[in-house]
Amino acid sequence: MIYLDSAATAPPRREVLEAMWPLLTGGFGNPSSRHSVGEAAARALESAREAAASVLGCRPAEIIFTSGGTEADNLAVKGLALAGLDRLSGAAGNGRAPHVVSTAVEHPAVLESLEYLRRRHGFTVTLLPVDAAGRVDPAEAAAALTPATVLCSVMYANNEVGTVQPIREIAAHCRAAAVPFHTDAVQAGGWLDLDVTGLGVDALSLSGHKLGAPKGTGLLYLRGATALEPLLHGGGQERGRRSGTENVAAAVGMATALVLAAAEREGGAGRAAALRDRLIDAVLHRVRGARLTGHRTERLPGHASFCFPGTSGEAVLLELERAGVLCSSGSACAAGSDEPSAVLTAMGLDRETAQTAVRFTFTAALGEREIDQAAEAVAGAVAAVGRLGGSHAAGVAPVTLGA
Ligand code: PLP
Which of 104, 178, 219, 376 could crosslink 127 through cysteines, CB 3.0-4.6 Å? Predict the structure, then answer.
């Protein structure tokens, strides 16, 4: 079996599980308890915070551990936007509706948070368009900022097509306009520079299970004294920004995976980019009509995504699984939905073509032989689906890509 679905979830790392185990057994204490077992748990939690902070180049107090990327995105988007209402109240607001800038290609964790703000709190939302490669123009982001803008959120790299956004430039525009800038770095976490000062971001979301930690682990970086409205109220853990008894093992798993991923990044990103290019070249060469989606070079190293016009993404996926290759289809953004991917349609693809999308994502541990086998399997799968009559020929259920 060749696993090419690391963007959905990456294989767990043994070192991470070993680091977590003591906290789930003898070291089970509550970090708030004032006895030795509790204090040991508190120390483990703070060490995890320091380790994560060392990768991000920030202070430990700027790390908020969460239950994953979805929670980190919700906390950033809702928490920063709602806190921004205070700045708009009074003369400065001038009676304007609060405003948020984001993009049409964000993950649903961001888009649905924005929809909630619009529906329940009267925010106006500008979703920046993207070009055919899925990139946002920083000048358009700058032009979208208004005196009522309380937040700008642009993902670091896209989950469906791997395109990397020019977030440094966008963050600089936001800083000049005194607008807090958040980036969803869930897919970028294992591959790209995470130094928050160099990036110029005020908030950054990460998810552990994309890095080799278990699902349900994540963090939000929040710069210094940036105002944040908490979503979870209670005992005031995480400096009042995220109440609830801390999941110490999850925090340790998240931090351990982050440190390991950062250590591997230098060599690993180059290796994975070479594998990616090998796969892209082989598929484009062997499969007539295949179309790469996303940017050719400004894309995540371990990410290759295509449309195969005249087929169905789900049918190709099923054929590939028969051939021992596991990947994602890009045609449905939610299980049970027939809607084509909003990311692909935002990039200008027609609905029919968008329904033929397939995504291959992998770690740097993969070998060239597996890439070549995968390319061979793709050629065979597309040909088989084409012979069966293309679109929806196999009559299979839509598969989730949103993960
Ligand atoms: N943001 C992006 C870009 C993602 O790809 C994902 C998950 O696939 C998330 C957020 C949500 O992360 P989690 O699965 O940890 O909730």
Answer: 104
CA atoms within 13 A on the CB side of 155: 32
Q: What's the token pair of residue 179?
A: 């607008």
Q: Residue 302: give its domain's CATH number.
A: 3.90.1150.10
Q: Ligand 1: does its nearest atom lie under 6 Å from the Cβ of 300? A: no
Closest Cα to atom 5 of ligand 1: 159
Cα–Cα distance, 61 to 58 (Å, whole number): 8
Q: Count Cα atoms within 13 angstroms, Cβ side, for 78.
A: 21
Question: Is 403 among the domain residues?
Answer: no
- For the chain, helix, strand, coil in percent to 5 are 45, 15, 40
Distance between CA atoms of 286 and 130, rounded to whole angstroms?
29
Parent domain of 168: 14-261
Decide whether any atom of ligand 1 lies within 6 Å of the 159 Cβ: yes
Q: What are phi and psi of 180, to 5 degrees?
A: -60, 140
- pLDDT tens profile 301-337: 999 999 999 999 999 999 999 999 999 987 544 555 6
Catalytic residue among 58, 174, 327, 333: 333
pLDDT tens digits, 70-104: 999 999 999 999 999 988 876 556 778 999 999 99
Please report, for residues 68, 180, 182, 377, the alpha-carbon distance to residue 153 in angstroms, rounded to integers and kept in the order given: 18, 9, 5, 38
Q: Output the residue whose Cα is nearest ligand 1's atom 13.
A: 69
**333 has catalytic annotation:** yes
How far does the chain reach from its first CA to its final CA, in angstroms?
21
* Distance from residue 187's CA to the centre of ligand 1 (Å): 7
Instruction: Report CA(97)–ligand 1 centroid distance (Å).
Output: 29
Does ligand 1 have an atom closer than 6 angstroms to the CB of 403?
yes
How many domains in the chain? 2
Closest atom of ligand 1 to CA, residue 208: 15
CB 29 within 8 A of CB 41: yes
pLDDT band, very low/low/confident/very high, at 397 (cuts 50, 70, 90): very low
As a whole number of angstroms, the distance between CA 377 and CA 324 comes to 8
CA distance 151 to 74: 13
